[in-house]
Amino acid sequence: MTSLTALSPHETHSAKVGRVLYFVLLVAIMISMSYVISGQLFKFAVMALSAYVAPEGATAVAEASKLMSSMTVVHNGLAVVLTIVLTIIVVRKFINTGHVHRMAFLHRMVLYLALIVGVVVVLFPFFWMLCTAFKPSGQELVISKTNPFDIVPSEPTLDNFRRVLKIDAASKAMAAVDAIEQKKNFGTFFLNSLLVATTAAFMVTFFAAMGAYVFSKKQLPYKQQIFMLLLATMMIPGMMFMVPQFFMVCKMGLFGTKWAMFLPHLASVFGIFMLKQFMDTIPDSLIEAAQIDGASEWQVFRVVIVPLAFPIILTLFLLTFLFHWSNFLWQLIVTNFENPLSITLPVGLALFRGQYTSELGLIMSASCFSIVPIAVLFLFAQRYFIAGMTQGAVKE
Fold it and tell me: What is the rounded CA–CA span in Å between residue 223 and residue 221?
């Protein structure tokens, strides 16, 4: 008993030393990650500013590179300052934490570091895309020999963005003498896709919501059999529909128009199924109360059903918008390349890729614009999107 009591202080001291060493190791990892990540972000900001300030012309790359070199101390200094501040905050929190709770603090610190690594892995392709968009032609895949982790270009240029938007000198000269050439730009493709995806998402969601309401709350002959037949059509591969749909579009005289890009896809069995599963959880007593108050069928649908099912309706809207925004094959089939107003974004991006060469810088700069609507939609609607996707996950 005496020997165990004598060894107890030694074990406590060893545990304290182990926790301190563990903390020092985590702080060292945190310092390295903080300096590298913040250094790349600050350098990217300086790079974008240098490319924007540099005048357009043959010397633009050299001027931007010179400006970046003069501001090396600035972005490195900001990275060092941010790392020091972060280190001081973490060390003070560790010191102010009681000995009993320090192991929990270290576990939480490991979790945060692991989450940061996950975020870096997920967002790295987007950051690489942004950096590649600023690289001059022919240097898109060139890696720094001194630091392979430094992917921000030291010789940035905005030529890729100017060429994509056709606001460079050569494109302006061609557009001045050719009205069709003026329409063949990324801005036109972007607006075409935005119009097609928004219209399709709204109409698909509207029709699916009405269909789901009927299948969920109305009494129809053979309703269950019809619904099961609709679900069975989901097992048919979409490729089998393309040829008959193409002939139908041509017979209707819609080839090369925006209507042809989404009209064959307005009937969404998946959307009806997803909305019906949610509407089944809405109590019938609410509908009966609205009908007793004199509400029509349209008022019941608009005032009772839609507000209660809004999260799942918005989820279907986002999924449909994403599908039509990135739909390449069907839009390629029904596109009339002689009419630039019928070319959408996915097809327009493919125009930057030739038979033997691929203009990677132009593709990356165009892709930077293409992700903006998706990012904005998910940013403002993520609360409803998550609520819709998790609806019914927990049984109350």
Answer: 5
